[in-house]
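Reproducibility note. Readers wishing to regenerate the assembly model reported in the main text can use the exact inputs given here. Chain order matters: entities are listed in the order in which they were concatenated for prediction.
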Amino acid sequence: VTWPRSVLPMAVRAGIVVTGTEVLTGRVSDRNGPWLAEQLRQLGVDVGQIVVVGDRPDDMRSALAHLAHSHDLVITSGGLGPTADDLTAEVVGQFQGRPLVLDQQLEKRIGAIVDRLVARFGGTLDPAATAAGTRKQAMVPAGASVLEPTGTAPGLVVPAADGRTGPPVIVLPGPPRELQQMWPVAVAQPVVHAILVAAPELRQRTLRMWGVPESELAAMLRRAGDAFDGLEITTCLRDGELEIVSRYRVQAEPAQQRLADGIRQSFGDRLFSDGPTIDELVVAALVANGWTLAAAEAGLGGRTTARLTSYQAPGPVLGGLVVARRDPADDATAPALARNVMALFGADAGLGISGPGQDGEPVQIAVITPGGEHARSVSVSGPAQFVRERVSALAMHQLRETLTAAH
Amino acid sequence: VTWPRSVLPMAVRAGIVVTGTEVLTGRVSDRNGPWLAEQLRQLGVDVGQIVVVGDRPDDMRSALAHLAHSHDLVITSGGLGPTADDLTAEVVGQFQGRPLVLDQQLEKRIGAIVDRLVARFGGTLDPAATAAGTRKQAMVPAGASVLEPTGTAPGLVVPAADGRTGPPVIVLPGPPRELQQMWPVAVAQPVVHAILVAAPELRQRTLRMWGVPESELAAMLRRAGDAFDGLEITTCLRDGELEIVSRYRVQAEPAQQRLADGIRQSFGDRLFSDGPTIDELVVAALVANGWTLAAAEAGLGGRTTARLTSYQAPGPVLGGLVVARRDPADDATAPALARNVMALFGADAGLGISGPGQDGEPVQIAVITPGGEHARSVSVSGPAQFVRERVSALAMHQLRETLTAAH
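Running the prediction on these inputs yields the following structure tokens for the assembly.
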């Protein structure tokens, strides 16, 4: 939820069209919308709406018309491949009043890229089909700026044709790697740059609390009256953590400071972070103590081990042991798991989690450090995936609390 | 991409409005849109567009107007909490011409739920604030159907007011668990049911290939002419797998059969699945051989272990070992990892992956079964996350190939 007093002066708004039936039908989760939203935020631009459409020209056209109406800039992702069903360039060109024309130089450059790929992967590609695909990708709206391919597909910046109004459309490829590599070139185009220079800095800061109901924070914000005006405050509860994100212009920095101070005053150490995630704090606490860690978990599908070991090595976490079977959660299981995995990896500290059994059955979490052994029992009800996420979060917080107390 | 001949007769289209600044800004990935899309597909309903908006009434209003224009049913998720910034009920009510009225019976029922929650969690809730929140949640558009809360928030089915046209709007809470529990009640409401009975069955089938470029499949589909008419075919390349999803009405079942046969004929055993994921196939192949498995991976962040152990125990995978440090990828490392983890868990078979080193450096993958030892070296270039996903996919496919050859 966003706090109602939140009034953020929004100078520049961007809208995003994500294309792809696989995204629309939920088989693939969109990574481009969130990535673009954060890049735009860093440029001071607010994302107003994201529209997801399938590979259907009517839907794409209506999404463009919808977003162009209330946004200063429109960005599309996907639909730039070599086959006829990839129709973003054509639809955007029509929408902006710029029919497609063949860019012969671009056709040669794409042809060279495709030749290199064919040489690399070998294969039985039909030359006529390949040439047709290359030509299709070299058809660009007349007067559009071409963004050089980072895969095989060029991107585009397509302003409205002379005599038309409406925002320019940035057309980017769907594969996240290609889109991300092309982004800096897209924002450097004069027609885009001219819009972005109007956007003042938009700051974002995150506070994280543990063990606080959203309603208690809401009551505290209400009591504060207008002290936090100028901040757009969004709160979000997940895995038992309450995340408080403020977005604000530079002049509201004092209000953000008042917010952080007020929350610290009201909630003490239940405010556990002014930025870093719990995973990052656990790693930092290990480093501060000069300890290495190994983790063992039963019946959680490797969730906690993946969180702890996903950082770039070398780090203080040496590894983990994932036991698929759920052990009985007696008092001895979790400490034994922790001790065994410490011995296996030669680690200074250990985390042991006896797997969640049936819904709501107690789970033991044990943290062993050179300073002692801290075990406790928790109980979480709900679907298996929910229980796993919550138990993993409980273990990470128990780990952080034990490590920071030891320090 | 969606194959261009794809023409799916769409009798009923639904549009979805996802609300929440945390989703719009990319901090939380939306789980409701994909879940609803699959539920609707099972009811024969096609999702046309999904619009993501922040907690801002103007954007929500414009999203509703946009979707109402070209859809038979509109569904919203989120924005039903007790605070004033949760404004979905109010905005939808205005949009449908139905001002909010207090439902006193509903207020009592929500009050009872809140009392139970307060009793359970204790806490320092302000009674006046709680009562105000309860009353706010009991304000419903006049003439709307109330869906009983599965958390504290009621859902709504809001038809257009008399004299207005446009689709009914189903208003659902944001937390996925609450939304999912409420869904069956929502679709059973007469005004929704009347729309759904018009939707013929919409089937979906998935074929999965490994080691086939998208362009080769495209060439094969082109050569087939009109043999697959009636199928909406979407192809999607991820982690090196090519996923081919068809959606079709019952009468196109023969076309789907022709597609499956044609792909099998053209690509042989590179078509590895007509439904199940590679993870499911690995587990099935273990069961078919009557073998248990343990896995050890270095420097991959626990990706493969999590995939293998995330199924409900008891299963054939006993567990995994995640080594954070990257070992040198000499010929001996991966087989040694596999043998050590087999011994640790007492498993019949083992998977060992020597961690990816620097970008593009070779990675060893070893599979040991009672039938023998199969090791090979692969090399993947790109960002760390990309390399991890791809190496994990390579390992899963090597595992399946070895296990099915042994069977």
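We highlight two features of this model. The radius of gyration of chain A is 26 Å. Chain A is about 40% helix and 25% strand.
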